[in-house]
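Sample entry follows:

:::
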Amino acid sequence: MYQHPNTFIRRILRASGIVLYRLGLAKKIIALRKQAPRVLLYHAVEDHVSDYTDRLGVSVSSAMFEANLRYVRDHYNVVSVSDLHAKRLPENPLLITFDDAYKSVYDNAFPLLRKYRMPATVYVITCAVNNQLVWVNEVNSALLRYPRESLEVCHQFPDLLGLDSPPQIIHAIKTRFAPSNIKELCARIRQMIPADSNHSLYASREALFEMRDAGITLGFHTRDHYNLANCDANELQRQLDPSGVEDLVDPTTFAYPFGTFDSTAVDLLRDRSYQTVMTVGNNNNRYFSRHLDRIELFTSDPAVVFAQLEVEEPVISALRKLSLSIRSTRHRLQDTHLSGT
């Protein structure tokens, strides 16, 4: 769901990383950043995607996930978010995280994490814990099961006119719709399409407690998984209120839906007890020192995993940091010139 654009520079960096891995240089290059925590992001771990997750870009197979764990075991030391907060970090630390708390994480990922004795953090959504469909899954399923009826509803909204594929529509809703518009869209869909109350898409409260008792940290991921940048002040306060899951979640860690935020969300989170706030992408700590970037993996090829974690993302991060520094210097020089005249 958060995959980066496949740009030319990313393709070059990934290809370079694959070559370095094939040359047997992986461990030496990993050691160059031995104090830097890497953070992986997953969503669903399922061998057969459902209408709720199909084409959303959120699923990996059990075999792929286990291949990733084997690679991680051989190259990193997996730590918990509590270890990170306490600064008890070995060399080459790595965190494993999951957003949305899908049942497939409990069914398929949790047994593998126990097998390899690795901690992880699962970020839960209040409505999902209450077995209410998150709007992304609800709209996606409707579009795939009942395309004619769903498109008829979607095209009643100007921002969705001309869009026909589920990924396009989901992206447009995610980026352009206020929560009130999403609620209205879902209400209209439910008027035309029978609701599925037996979906079993998310981990139950009992399953979440079981994972937590086994050492899995549970973090907060908002009430309804709206893009926080599209929330007004009242809705933002509501989305950041963990009431209803406070007995489950660790109050020190939070993850943004879609990895998106704005300055208002950052300011509200700054005043709370969160020690880590999970984003997606690079250099988000320039907005907030407690931001921690995450990387999604959709491959079982160890060479590609290495290339993403140790070449592509670090170099993109460095280039972005350099660009920001140059831009900041240019603005300062312009301000100095203007004040001197």
